Amino acid sequence: MLEKYRSICVLGLGYIGLPTASLLGTKGYSVIGVDVSEHVVDTINKGNAHISEPDLDILLKSAVQSGNLRASLTPEEADIFIIAVPTPFKAGHEPDLQYVQQATQSIVPFVRRGNLVILESTSPVGTTLDVVAEGLKATNLKIGEEVFVAHCPERVLPGRILTELVENDRIVGGINDASTDMACDFYSEFVRGEVLRTDASTAEMTKLVENTFRDVNIAFANELSLICDSLSVNVWDVISLANRHPRVNILQPGPGVGGHCIAVDPWFIVARCPEAARLTRTAREINDAKPDWVVERVVSKARKFREPVIACLGISFKADVGDMRESPALYIARTLRDRKIGQVIVCEPNAPAVNGFETAPLPEAIAQADIVVVLVDHRAFRKLRASDLKEKVVIDTRGCLR
């Protein structure tokens, strides 16, 4: 470890901040994790994780028991400050940067000469310079000369966060060369992937482009599913056959797009360049509209029953995780329930108890259902066969029952 980097303050102990703080604690750094939730702070200080991620509980407990990690409601002095707070959007899909602003303001009293401040939160282009660096001017230190600022966006997949924090390449962009140098030195200490140098704005844009690329390609698959449905053509067969072309790789359609990144980040590009980002906006609108299309499919089938029982298989945002952030499946289940289309039963193997829903194991949910809606391609659902669902009305948004 570099001697000058001994203490780290991580602001935001969610899906990125907590794994990062736990990892750094086990690497020998002295880490103070900060969160606005007293429940989160108390839970972590007991050595328990408040979020679900493979092996995180073991890593966290090790870091806490070693004395290298503790949680607090307020920041403290450190060599490095890592901001990993949420960056949602407001009405009209405008970026909401209040948490970044608040985190920056909260560390101003504790920043000292020679400190490095890193924004890891996915952010609109300009946030590192215009929000973080600008906010740190209140320290009365020279930003970029006495206090160094950089952006290093997270690039991890839920379910593989701890592995990818270390193995994936990292993009590091400072507000100047000195900031980039310091941040690259830091990440090179624990990242086995390549640490790639750039400037802050390019790093911000690169992360947004990564998720927007995926969103646009998913939108094509989702639009294709609508077209094929209107033509009574099996979209799964079409995609499978088209992908046999050596230069075609169409993604799989679904009930929409979820998760904090892909469902949110493209709007940051649209907000900055509304006239130029036409394809990005259209892709977002296609994917945002898909859940309501699925709801209407269920409604049309439900009319055949007096009081239908509807089994929603999966409500997380992706397969084999319990993360429900921006989940289109959860939106669909809630909408069916709130519109009183029928009795809604949820089967979610990764979160057996779900607030506001009647839940059941898979065999029981299928046995009770008149309509089975496959919303997430969890491993357990991929084992289903058409014979398991005979005499049921099936709406398969994931192609599990081809």
How would the global form be characterised?
globular
Q: What structural category arises from helix and sheet content? A: alpha/beta
Report low-confidence residues grouped into runs of 5 or more: none
User: How many domains in all?
Assistant: 2
Quote the average pLDDT.
Answer: 95
CATH fold name of the largest domain, please? Rossmann fold
CATH C-level class of the largest domain is Alpha Beta
Total of DSSP H or I helical runs spanning 4+ residues: 14
N to C succession of SSEs: EHEHHEEHEHEHEHEHHHHEHEEHEHE
Query: End-to-end distance, in Å?
Result: 52 Å
| CATH architecture identity of the largest domain | 3-Layer(aba) Sandwich
Oligomer: single chain
Count the E strands: 13
Summary keywords:
single chain; 402 residues; alpha/beta; Rossmann fold; 2 domains; five-stranded parallel β-sheet; 13 strands
